[in-house]
Model the fold of this input.
Amino acid sequence: MDQLTAPVTTAGPRRVADRRTMVGVAAMLVAVALIVSVGDPGRIAWVRTFFVIFGSLLIQALPFVMLGAFAAALVEVFVPIGVFEKLGALPRPLQLPAAALAGLAFPICECGSVPVARRLMQRGLMPSAAVTFMLAAPVLNPVVIASTYVAFRGRSTLWTMVGGRFLLGMLVAIAVGWVVGNRSKEQLLKPNPEEEHEDLLELGRPEARWRRFFVHLGNDFLFMGRYLLLGATIAAAIQTFLPTSLLTGVAARPVISVLTMMALAAALSLCSESDAFVAASFVQFGPAAQLGFLVFGPMVDMKLVALYAGTFRRPFARTVVVVSAVATLVGALWVGVAFG
Amino acid sequence: MSDAIVARTGARVLDESAPPRRWSPTRLAGTIVLGAWAGLFWFLWLTGREAFYLSTRTEWVVPVAAALLTAATIGRLASAKVTTPKPIAARELWIMGLMVVPVVLVVFSHPATLGSFSAGKRAGFSGTSVAASASDIGSGELTLIDVAAGETSPDGERALAKRAGEQVDFVGFVSIRDDTPADEFLLARYVVTCCVADATIAEVRVVNVTPGQFSNEDWVRVRGTIFPLGREVIVDASDVGAVDRPDHPYLTP
Done:
């Protein structure tokens, strides 16, 4: 874990890959191929379940990481740096809600919003606004609103869930942005080791735009992909072994039920575009707990914690988790009291 | 004389403006990882195996990802020659190798779907609002989604109760738990909205089956008479036969 969260600097000598390393990596891949094709570990029920869930999480999430990396590379290479500096000059009370509402125009799930936010910070957008955007986009985007509507259609809590998710999601994202305050990007972001070793200058001049675009695209995908892999492994293990029936015993307890559903959302690591259908299936839980699930899940889950750990410095990643959790809990309980 | 000077000066200018480019190991390794993932998405799309991981609603991401990753691979390869290549760290190369492991797992493992192991761990499908309103359940051909939706809301339950005694025809997999009597099994099917991670389960209890004829995970077609009993639905089987796993093993609400 320390390797993930400690500042990645070039301190200390790096062991350079040689022929032996290449042979070792190739041998590992051949061994994995032989084990799964000849040994067929999928005969064991839990192994098969783990493989299917792990594969589905990656196959579902990686295209969105790619789309996010694509958008981030476009921002890096084609958007003039002055654009974000102008936005950064707006007063914060205006900037944060505007950043949150920008999610409405950005139909991308949580995995895609992390590389975009990181790149926005690097291009001069105020970090608090970039963080607000990162957390709000997966909750506020039109696809998510529509899927929440469809999942709860026909229930008396329909508008509590749709409106509550939108408003509470926006408020929680703004709250985190507010706590980030005036911290600089250097205080929040970890350097990308992919980029540290990239020299995008040729004889002191920048490389051609198209080359820089593809280099940034690849770097962002490879950087986010490794943390997504880690998060998907943990989430798949939890999904394989956690029986959801364990949770039904706490459904009637107000605070604990909200906390339980928030923890479940973090553990399951669902895409924000589909989580409403799972939340709706927990009919024994009230609207406050279901709302906690719908707001907290797209901001903090196993995949995201891994992505945050790779992208941001440890104190900031902790801030995102804690402030999101507290703000969601308070907001969901209020909704429970007002509309439950 | 002047020719010689021009020629020599010209050569020097050319050398300085376009120094030789060599392959960057870091960019090449990244290209291989991107290419492997692009290959996986093409593989899933061409073999139809994406249906084992995603719902029909989200299958579109597979060709899109395949195209984007292929473009990214080609673009990265085209920009993989640099003037001052730096060596790749051993740790970095191992990480790149680990990023290819999921590709190897999916391509080389035998095709598999979520089975009976998860059946008891998943929440029941609650879809009155998605695919089956009480009026849908009350008329037309009953599907497993209708039945499962009917089990989770009072309106659906009442609508389903009115269908008692009707003939049904369901396809699903067999799930047998420790307390399942010998002449019964649970007929189950996962309902997937986005990917398998959000799967919920739709199941009915099938009675009057030959003991020992089927085991866990077998795909079967059950025809019989339906009897909704509160939150449980029983199908009195008149005909149970083995079938191949459907191309789309999960239901989409």
Observations:
- Chain A touches chain B through 89 residues (CB under 8 Å).
- Chain A has 17 helices and two strands.
